[in-house]
Input
Amino acid sequence: MCVKVACVGGGPAGLYLSILLKRRNPSYDITVHERNAEGSTYGWGVTYWRELLEKLHRYDPESAREIDAASVRWTEGVAHIRGTATRRPGDEGHGIGRHRMLEILAARARGLGVRLEFESEVDGPPEADLVVAADGVHSALRTGRAADFGAELTDGRNAYVWLGTTKVFPTFTFAFVETEHGWVWCYGYPYDDGHSTCVIECAPETVAGLGLDGEDSLPVLEKLFAHILDGHELIGREPGPWPVFRTLTNRTWHHGNLVLLGDAAHTTHYSIGAGTTLALEDAMALADALDTGDLPSALAAYEAQRKAALLSTQSAARYSAQWYENLSRYIDLPPEQMFALLGQRHSPLLPYVPPQLYYRLDRAAGSLEPLLRFKRWLGPKLARNVHARVLTSRK
Output
């Protein structure tokens, strides 16, 4: 039987789902609709970790090999604070240009027989057996049926801007700069041989005080971060207000034959670098679920599996965002302690323990097995309780 699938949105989630479905079911008639022209995309580079790469190799080795070959890697982080550069080892991280990733996925999808329609504006759900809304946080398909999905957007406090630079950072780089209007910080990471992503964040009052939403914001930012840019320019900022991150949740991810995927279903704060990973894992889970039976049962199973899998990541993202929103709590610690707690920012315990005490306990827990077991037990327990209170407060 020929099944017709329409995927609205040609980002990583939509393209990868089309690859997985066509690879498993060559008879499927699959079309990906993308409103933008081919080769045009937002953003600079994306990050991912070894676990995702292993999954990509299991699900589609051909595209995984190309993504692997096009990626750069790092195994440590460096934090620049008050003239001091502090380094810490970490898990192997990977960076790849978003444009390059989309090239790889689009070519693979075409090779399998997926129909890609660029500059294809879709006003409503196309005629198909399965319609996939992979059109991002502002999904038109989801918005058109807002009552059915129960979308909720929550604004964060800090403002941010996503930039590129020709400075190739040797590793994942943090830099914190104090100004007369408050702290400004960046996250920088390489994604090819000639470019890095540079995400800059600060409080809204700092944006206003420094005039960062005006025409001359890039020279101001280049001066603030000159010590890590080494004379290279920042690229990509248009004058205008800095956005705040919006966390999206949905009461349900499917209605009839329409299902949400990636950022159309959920968002997680950029400071944990998981957005693209979660979108690709959504595609894997949906493809798996569609192998198991009838469409209603498959969509329900997909939603249940992914919502459960996302709980820990969403908790980590929430605490990570709050860590930066409460930077003053940590910034005056000795640099090595501050960087250590930066690495612990996902912890549900950290907001409730004095920072220096947490640092000492964490070091002790690393060498004393009973303390480590207690931390592993208490952290998730506290996270579940806080998460339950958040859900209750929204009812």
